[in-house]
Amino acid sequence: MAKETFSVGEQSVIFPRDVYVASSASVVGKKEGEGPLGEAFDMICDDDKFGEDTWEQAESALQKEALALAMGKAGMKPKDVRYLFAGDLLGQNIATSFGLMDYEIPLFGLYGACSTAGESLSLASMCVGAGYAKTVAALTSSHFASAEKQFRYPLEYANQRPVSATWTVTGSGAFLLSCKRSSVRITGITTGKIVDMGIKDSMNMGAAMAPAAADVIKQNLEDFGRRPSDYDKIVTGDLGYVGQEILIDLLKKEKIDISGVHEDCGILIFDKETQGTGSGGSGCGCSAATLSAHYLPRLTDGGCRRILFVPTGALLSTVSFNEGQNVPGIAHAVVIEHMDEEAE
């Protein structure tokens, strides 16, 4: 007898059992709180060091607080969470390891650059959907100052930024996924491939990541037999204004027009005219915090029925950049849907 398969098309997966979003939480810094989504975040801290001594410790505090808030909303304690899937932008994932170790929850540390929100949600969904756990947490973070320190220049250098540059979001988003029914369900994922189009400009992350986003969106539509209009929104993570234009143009060349349904978290989270954020926002915390604060409430109340959430990442390090390597991109797509209440 043939075994049932849950792989779909070339790169996508559905799950043996339903996977629901039990709760989520977002924590951001002062600049993010002053942006267009400010009223939607769960916690805004006026001190971007979050009372800590270093920027890295501040980023750890972001994750710690976000997970605590998500568990509080769900009425859960650390012992109720079987696994953590989490990551950040810093070397050795130190924001994650130092931020979450006190919870004493088994951890899978992840690195997908700014696509880590999609990677963590994908793997957490597979874990719950396969029956390995009843409740799993997925979370990510980024911090403007710690990212600048690691990838570009210390803030004291006060270098000029080109308009193509994105502003790393100081923020974290945490999600609890469960087999217990809720009004929001993750119904499938499409895992992205590394795409290298020869971009070398580390100040133009949108251009580096847009080809990977186009590739995984095209594959998701093919694998599930859908059109862009089958989604209320196709939401990328970190492309900003420059990357959005490239993404739409790349897909139009494939005869796919997403212009009517596309939104980008990096565009939504800041007002570039009043906040001086160049092309928009980026960083692991950008898409995660925006999904939690902006999109999940719309899915919960039925304002959106189905979205494709596509965080995007640029796979570079200071070593690879200084050695003249290209900046490859990757993106992961997560299908998230509103679920109508059913009679018991």
Describe the structure.
The strands form three sheets. Strands 1, 2, 3, 4, 5, 6, 7, 9, 10, 11, 12, 14 and 17 form a 13-stranded mixed sheet that branches. Helix 2 (55-74) packs across helix 3 (94-100) and helix 6 crosses helix 7. With 344 residues, the protein is α/β, with parallel strands linked by helices. It is globular and about 50 Å long. It contains eleven helices and 17 strands. The model has no long low-confidence stretch (mean pLDDT 92). The chain folds into two domains: 7-178, Stage V sporulation protein AD (Peroxisomal Thiolase, Chain A, domain 1, 3-Layer(aba) Sandwich), CATH 3.40.47; 186-338, Peroxisomal Thiolase, Chain A, domain 1 (3-Layer(aba) Sandwich), CATH 3.40.47.
Order of helices and strands: EEEHEHEHEHEHEEEHEHEHHEHEEHEE
Overall pLDDT score:
92
CATH superfamily of the largest domain: Stage V sporulation protein AD
Given the helix and strand composition, which structural class is it? alpha/beta
What's the quaternary structure here?
A: single chain
Percent of residues in β-strands: 15-25%
Largest sheet: 13 strands, mixed
CATH topology of the largest domain: Peroxisomal Thiolase, Chain A, domain 1
Radius of gyration over all CA atoms, rounded: 19 Å
Number of strands: 17
- Count of all domains: 2
Task: Give the second-level CATH assignment, the architecture of the largest domain.
Answer: 3-Layer(aba) Sandwich
- Share of helix among residues? 25-40%
| Tally of individual helices | 11
Highest CATH level, the class of the largest domain: Alpha Beta
Low-pLDDT residue spans: none
Question: First CA to last CA: what distance?
Answer: 34 Å
What shape does the CA trace take? Answer: globular
